[in-house]
User: Fold these one by one.
Assistant:
Number 1:
Amino acid sequence: MAVIELTMENFEKEVLRSDVPVLVDFWAIWCGPCRMLSPVVDEVSEGAEGFKVGKVNVDEQPELAERFGISSIPCLIVFKGGSEAKRSVGVIPKAAVLDLVKNV
């Protein structure tokens, strides 16, 4: 499944009202660690079964970053049932990303 580009306009529908868990990557183009984690998140999305994957560019969507208290990036948040279930800050390996989303 392709990564969903999340914005203020589609966040409610794609994440908060989703019937499956959603892994959301908060990132920015200038962030070196974000660029390291991005291909891992893309790879996880390709094999996504039972969950969705989305990305929020914090420079383009500062309201979403503020709403969820993003102070350091990259930040992965797993949403389930419209609420935050898990959070991880910093670069983590693919296995850890999968653990985040599969154990919610």
Number 2:
Amino acid sequence: MARTPLMPCTGPLDRRTWLKIGGLGLGALCAGMSPTLAQLLANEAVDRNFSVILFWANGGPSHLETFDLKPAAPAEIRGDFRPIRTNVPGIDICEHLPRLARMADKFTILRSLHHERGEHSGGTHRFLTGHSSLAANLPNAENPELGSVVARQLDPFAGRASDGFNSPSLARSANRRETSGVPIFVGDTQFYGAGPAYLGKAYAPFMVNPNNPISASGNNTYDDIPIYPPQNGEGVQLAADSTLRLQARAGLLNQLDGLRRDAERSGALDTWDRHHRRAVEILSSSRTRNAFDLSQESHTLRQRYGDTHWGKSLLTCRRLVEAGVRFVQCQATYRLPASVGRTSNWDDHSVNAHIFDGYRLKLPVLDQAMSALIDDLYTRGLDRRVLFIFTGEFGRTPTVRNQDASGRPGRDHWPRAMSVFLAGGGLRMGQVIGATNPRGEHPVQRPLDSNCLLATIYHRFGIDPSHHLHDVSGRPIPILPRGEVIRELIG
């Protein structure tokens, strides 16, 4: 099947650009590569410091209660909330997000993203990997998630000469910052339906706390899993699941002694030792420990984010990307009081929670934390290289339903329409891309497969989505099977 182009036309090239392409081409050829002109042009447009903060609203937030309200629709569709104007004419968002409304020039809303998977883990897998999984309710990914692919492709120790992407020498040259004592990929926990898949644990996120298996089980009631340390950075110990737990490594080495000779012959031990050394470097790095230390921020700034789980999470995310982490992901969990619902996530079925009462609690906290982060990114000049994303695996049904015995309102899964919130990243802000019909059921303007967002992110990282990775059997699998860069964001 023919692939959709991933790069828009860049127009005529000046002499300086041609000289850069020539220099890159010569170096690549000397290293044994055969780079295409498209790859070189992509590299030319890449910010080598580009990073992503993914604030993942697991469960699927309602577009109709946040960024795509339908005030003219019947009551059973529009719900309880009303839109308010923002500082950008024509952009309206929920009335419970007044701080964000005052800075709409600093964010963009994608209102026409969609895909075809309506299960939580299946939808998460589809959104974060770009591939539709074979299993419906899978705890672990069949294909590597976005952060794992980024970690693999930016890893200066992952000898890419064998898979045709890049040579180790060029990787080290292009990504020196990854050797500076911070991990490439950090998260608070594994997402349900996500993970590194066949790339292996070396490309799972580094985590401050041991992974909570409930977060990848489909259980939607569990305590918040902080990405920040419990006592302002004291005793930070990353649970290096991306290699192996350090506390168990001595015993593991003893167990592996009998296999050492075979491993040395195959080269597997050398790869494992590289990751071992990398984990030790990260775990002993003052730069990593300092990135998690919120006490280094002023009391005033911490209060602006809010003394809440989300406030401390997003402030930690900002500190991590500022320290050099390239991809940070964090679940946007919120434990509702029993009087409102039983969920910790955004799975807003009637049987789980009163959707409107739940959002009355959550949205003001979200408004404070997200607006503080965006303002902070812009104040520090990080908006040019750090992209903030707020989304979940899908939207919610256009019809309010009352299946619970109490009769409380809720909405069900709806992958055919969703809203994604973006800020920064050197992309074009202050706009809405796409539109849904008057009932919020499906896109009617600029429909975008969710892979288009992934293609845009990979483009900013300088990663070619058509590049093939290899699964455990050696079978080549494209990073994305389809998807084109969203031209409105980069044009």
